[in-house]
Amino acid sequence: MNILVLNSGSSSIKFQVVQTDKDLIERDGDRCLAKGIVERIGSLALVHFQATGRPALKEDAPLRDYRAALDRIVRWVISPESGIEGIKSMADIHIIGHRVVHGGEKFRSSTVIDDAVLAGIEDCIELAPLHNPANIRGIRAAAEVFGRGVPQVAVFDTSFHATMPETAYLYGIPYHLYRRYKIRRYGFHGTSHRYLAYRYRVLNDIPKEAVNIITLHLGNGCSACAIKGGDSVNTSMGFTPLEGMVMGTRAGDVDVSVIEYLSHKEGLSLPDMITLLNKQSGLLGLSGLTSDMRELLEEEKENGDRRATLAIEVFCASARRRIGSYLAEMGGADALVFSGGIGENSAAIRRRICAGLDALGIVLDEKRNAAVKGGQTGEVSGKGSRVKIFVIPTNEELLIARDAFRTVSGLPQPTYSPRKTRKA
Ligand code: ADP
Question: Which atom, in ligand 1's list, is nearest to the CA of 291?
Answer without folding.
Answer: 14
